[in-house]
Q: What sequence folds into this?
């Protein structure tokens, strides 16, 4: 199953190539209105129709590589932010394996294997063999190559790439991405990595933000907040903008819609942006006062306050306690 937000990314990319939404969705039984509901999920036949349409419209058999190269950590929501902030590739893979299927809508599953001189990711795709399988795998391979280079700050050294299907006409793209031996018609699909080691620190790690993203991945996955589509989008936006002042107009620009559209969708769910922002800030502050050594000043900064005083006043309004009283109630002060 793929989530609506993933298909919307496809539509945005195809629009940039000059194709209308209806052309991409034709024959799938999916409408643009369906995709505005984040809880909407597509089944395998619908996904196959959309992939077939995109390949036919672009006449580009390597379109999966193009799509994957365009995906940024922000596009992946809290999962992508968690992967980038992770201290090591082991943590990055754990985030993907645990939460990408639910929160990002990936059809890729990974099994981690460790050997003496290298480690590898065994890959399976939740689609039958064929052009659809190849598209999703190539999209994932592009994500791996580009995110790996970004996280390391240099090229990852790959030991080999094994692909379970015959070599396509664009097989040179596999070699270009990974700069290692590539074997097609292999008994399995996997990527072997020589450097860095699984537990080497990576350049983009963030000791403060990683546990925050990890916490919200777990929370969103178990709580199923995505049933309220717009509320889920707001939560993802607030997580992505930690350290900045959250603003509905900025979110609207990111979502390619108007602020009034977001307000209307939230109103239909009985919510407001301000209420969700306050709920998020309260939950965040209470959680990290209890479980981390972050100071009130650091928490205030992460929540977008330019000064600690407004945060302290807001915390007292939320909880009826000062930050100091709250910390002491847990034996922390």
A:
């Amino acid at each position: 199953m793929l989530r609506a937000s993933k298909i919307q990314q496809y539509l945005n990319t195809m629009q940039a190539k000059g194709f209308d939404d209806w052309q991409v969705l034709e024959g799938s039984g999916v409408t643009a209105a369906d995709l505005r509901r984040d809880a909407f999920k597509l089944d395998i036949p619908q996904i196959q129709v959309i992939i077939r349409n995109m390949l036919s419209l672009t006449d580009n058999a390597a379109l999966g590589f193009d799509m994957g190269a365009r995906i940024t950590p922000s596009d992946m929501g809290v999962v992508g932010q968690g992967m980038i902030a992770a201290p090591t590739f082991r943590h990055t893979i754990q985030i993907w394996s645990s939460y990408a299927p639910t929160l990002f809508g990936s059809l890729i599953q990974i099994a981690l294997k460790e050997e003496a001189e290298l480690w590898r990711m065994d890959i399976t795709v939740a689609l039958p063999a064929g052009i659809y399988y190849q598209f999703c795998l190539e999209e994932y391979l592009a994500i791996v190559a580009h995110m790996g280079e970004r996280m390391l700050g240099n090229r990852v050294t790959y030991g080999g790439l094994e692909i379970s299907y015959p070599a396509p006409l664009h097989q040179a793209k596999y070699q270009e991405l990974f700069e290692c031996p590539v074997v097609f018609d292999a008994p399995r699909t996997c990527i072997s990595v020589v450097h860095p080691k699984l537990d080497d620190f990576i350049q983009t790690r963030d000791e403060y933000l990683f546990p925050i993203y990890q916490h919200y991945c777990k929370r969103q996955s178990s709580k199923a907040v995505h049933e309220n589509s717009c509320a889920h989008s707001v939560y993802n936006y607030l997580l992505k903008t930690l350290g900045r002042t959250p603003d509905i107009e900025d979110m609207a620009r990111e979502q390619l819609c108007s602020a009034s559209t977001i307000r209307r969708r939230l109103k239909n769910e009985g919510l407001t942006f301000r209420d969700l922002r306050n709920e998020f800030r309260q939950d965040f502050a209470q959680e990290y006062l209890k479980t981390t050594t972050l100071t009130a000043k650091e928490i205030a900064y992460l929540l977008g306050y330019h000064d600690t005083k407004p945060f302290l006043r807001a915390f007292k309004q939320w909880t009826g306690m000062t930050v100091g009283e709250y910390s002491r109630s847990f034996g922390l002060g």
